[in-house]
């Protein structure tokens, strides 16, 4: 008999096809995520769960799945929606999809950086509002990348890929993460600094840490006040790394110049969120890894982790907690 698995979202077909080769697949039939109570029902008795960042996989859900559960495979590199400790306590490995989405996410971070620096969304709006009557010598002036300083918080896989792109734009690069050495920073064209120095000296600050208790609201009223008045904040990590109320106040009061966000707290951002009223805040709907090839690779990698787990093999990419 094939192992029973539940896949929580309509992931790319290449991943589903691979899962079907080995497993008896129950697939959440709707495009929108399953409500928690539905998840509880559907995981009951399964051997494996393939999930995404829209599902809360907590201790209650892991318990509801029951004694057959052998693996939780997440189609994302971040896993802040999963209680990994609770899973590990029951001997259940958790898989994620590191590496395959690094380039796509770094590209999106750079797209946001360029868009915010050159005020693209304001320009688009200006045309749509019928205001483009002539070339303007002093209008929509943005920031240069060339010679500017980019501060990368979290010089991991994606942070390093962002540094690689920044070198092509002749930017100076500062980097901060907890275990970063001078040598490692230098190898990526960056200078290792502490967080206050990075915040003080950067023209652009880009976040690339996971969301953890330590990084929750890492960007807050105090850290925003440390940044340059001309600084631009880029967030492609998780919405929870930035205090949205503090960010709104900082953008409104010109404490910093602009922000470009792929991720928000909460997601989706409510239509009446004040951040959406600000011309200097560009927001896109969590599309960091959203390219055809990248999502296919993520789906396949998540499928392989799931299959390994339900067949008693070590996961190709398992989450290890420090
Ligand atoms: P990674 O290789 O593990 O890099 C994470 C980096 O953050 C490491 O350099 C780590 O170094 C640093 N870090 C962790 N805790 C820190 C702290 N408290 N203060 C400062 N630095 C800290 O992960 P990755 O593959 O680059 O992915 C990073 C995150 O991007 C993911 O966790 C996910 O949330 C997000 N992401 C978003 C999208 C999207 O669609 N927008 C797509 C992919 C990934 P130390 O441990 O030395 O501090």
Structure write-up:
By secondary structure, the chain is of the alpha/beta class. It has 2 domains: 4-99 and 292-310, 3-Layer(aba) Sandwich (Rossmann fold); 102-283, Rossmann fold (3-Layer(aba) Sandwich). The chain has 12 helices and 12 strands. α1 (13-22) packs parallel to α12. The chain is globular. 42% of the residues are buried. The mean pLDDT is 98. NADP nicotinamide-adenine-dinucleotide phosphate binds next to α5 and α7.
Bound molecules: NADP nicotinamide-adenine-dinucleotide phosphate
CATH class of the largest domain: Alpha Beta
Binned strand content: 5-15%
Query: So how many helices?
Result: 12
What's the helical proportion of residues?
Answer: 25-40%
Key descriptive features of the protein:
single chain; 322 residues; alpha/beta; Rossmann fold; 2 domains; 7-stranded parallel β-sheet; 5-stranded parallel β-sheet; 12 strands; 14% strand; globular; binds NADP nicotinamide-adenine-dinucleotide phosphate
Short structural description:
The protein has helices spanning 13-22, 36-43, 59-65, 84-89, 102-117, 120-128, 157-168, 182-187, 195-201, 221-226, 244-252, 292-310; strands spanning 4-7, 24-27, 48-51, 71-74, 94-95, 149-153, 172-176, 191-192, 204-207, 232-235, 258-261, 281-283. By secondary structure, the protein is an alpha/beta fold.
Blueprint (SSEs and pairs):
Layout: E1 4-7, H1 13-22, E2 24-27, H2 36-43, E3 48-51, H3 59-65, E4 71-74, H4 84-89, E5 94-95, H5 102-117, H6 120-128, E6 149-153, H7 157-168, E7 172-176, H8 182-187, E8 191-192, H9 195-201, E9 204-207, H10 221-226, E10 232-235, H11 244-252, E11 258-261, E12 281-283, H12 292-310
Parallel strand pairs: 1-2, 1-3, 3-4, 4-5, 6-7, 6-9, 7-8, 9-10, 10-11, 11-12
Helix pairs in contact: 1-12, 2-3, 5-7
The structure holds NADP nicotinamide-adenine-dinucleotide phosphate.
NADP nicotinamide-adenine-dinucleotide phosphate is lined by residues 77-78, 98, 101-102, 105, 153-159, 177-180, 208-212, 214-215, 236-238, 262-263, 286, 288-289.
């Amino acid at each position: 008999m094939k192992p029973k698995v539940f896949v929580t979202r309509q992931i790319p077909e290449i991943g589903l096809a691979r899962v079907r080769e080995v497993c008896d697949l129950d697939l959440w039939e709707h495009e929108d995520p399953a409500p928690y109570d539905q998840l509880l029902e559907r995981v009951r008795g399964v051997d494996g769960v393939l999930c995404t960042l829209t599902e809360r996989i907590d201790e209650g859900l892991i318990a509801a799945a029951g004694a057959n559960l052998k693996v939780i495979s997440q189609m994302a590199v971040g896993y802040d929606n999963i209680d990994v400790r609770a899973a590990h306590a029951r001997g259940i490995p958790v898989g994620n999809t590191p590496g395959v989405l690094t380039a796509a996410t770094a590209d999106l971070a750079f797209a946001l950086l360029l868009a915010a620096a050159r005020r693209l969304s304001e320009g688009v709006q200006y045309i749509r509002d019928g205001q483009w009557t002539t070339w303007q010598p002093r209008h929509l002036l943005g920031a240069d990348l060339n010679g500017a300083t980019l501060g990368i918080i979290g010089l991991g896989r994606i942070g390093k890929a962002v540094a690689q792109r920044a070198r092509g734009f002749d930017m100076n690069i500062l980097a901060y993460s907890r275990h970063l050495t001078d040598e490692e920073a230098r190898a990526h064209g960056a200078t290792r600094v502490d967080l206050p120095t990075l915040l003080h000296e950067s023209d652009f600050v880009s976040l690339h840490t996971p969301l953890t208790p330590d990084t929750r609201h890492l960007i807050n009223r105090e850290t925003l006040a440390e940044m340059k008045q001309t600084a631009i904040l880029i967030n492609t990590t998780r919405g929870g790394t930035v205090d949205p109320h503090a960010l709104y106040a900082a953008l409104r009061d010109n404490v910093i110049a602009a922000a470009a966000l792929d991720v928000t707290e909460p997601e989706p951002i409510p239509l009446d969120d004040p951040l959406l009223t600000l011309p200097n805040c560009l927001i896109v709907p969590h599309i960091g890894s959203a390219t055809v090839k990248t999502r296919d690779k993520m789906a396949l990698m998540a499928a392989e982790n799931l299959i390994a787990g339900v067949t008693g093999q070590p996961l190709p990419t398992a989450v290890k907690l420090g």
